[in-house]
Every structure is written in structure tokens, then in C-alpha cells.
UniProtKB/TrEMBL annotation:
SUPFAM superfamilies: Glyoxalase/Bleomycin resistance protein/Dihydroxybiphenyl dioxygenase. Residues 7-125 form the VOC domain. This is VOC family protein. InterPro entries: Glyas_Bleomycin-R_OHBP_Dase (IPR029068), Glyas_Fos-R_dOase_dom (IPR004360), VOC_core (IPR037523). Transmembrane segments: none annotated. Gene3D superfamilies: 2,3-Dihydroxybiphenyl 1,2-Dioxygenase, domain 1. It comes from the Bacteria.
Amino acid sequence: MIANVSAIHHFTVGCTPADLPALLEFYTRVVGLQQGYRPDLRNPGYWLYAGGHAIVHLNALLRETPVRDGGALDHVALQAHGLLSTRQALRDANVTFDEAPLKGTHLHQVFVEDPLGLRIELNFDLEAEGLLGCA
């Protein structure tokens, strides 16, 4: 074993400077992350936080907006809380989303797409939310 990996630390969304405003709005308004400290790096961008940890880095390192084909990365999954309020907030904001209960588990998945087409999976633990059999 080379490394003892225990969790995803963060993921970086590469974009152009012009893509930054829409991405910042999506990840703060739709996903609910908070903009926070970012070191003085070579390219413009933002670090977006959940629970005091920067989990999404927006990095304007590209000259052209990437093609919306997703490449080899299918989606990124984030642990989330507040399924019922998330559904309502997405509806109120006219954000398209899909849902899928994960059979054989307590997880309920909600999928949204960021402005560049990256699928974001929000995972809700129905047992922790008191929604087993109700979702």
C-alpha cells in the first residue's frame, strides 16, 4: 500500500475566468457551500467550504470553457443533510434535479448539474434524518 486514503479532501473544477461567477453561484446557492479563505494562487478562483473544510476549488486555469461531456469523471458525491428542505429549495430556485433511493441502504441520492455539466450527487442518510420509509 502506497497511501492510506480515508476520504476525498477536495475536488477542483477547472474553468475560465468568465465561468467563475456562474460556478460560484451554483456551489454556494444550490449546493450550500460557503466561500472562504483561498491562498494567493497563480490563477483566479475560489475555495468553497463545508464544515470548515474547503471541499470544492474553483480554478480559472483554462482558456476555453470545457466541453460538457464529463470526460472520464461521471460525478462527485457529497454527504448532505436536510433532504426535504433541499428538495424545496431546488424547486423554488427552478433547478432541475433527479432523485434515486439507493436500494438496500439508508441513502437517498439527489443529482444536480453544475453550470459546466459536472453531475453532483448529494447523499442524504434517511435514517439520520428520521425519514426511513418516508422519502
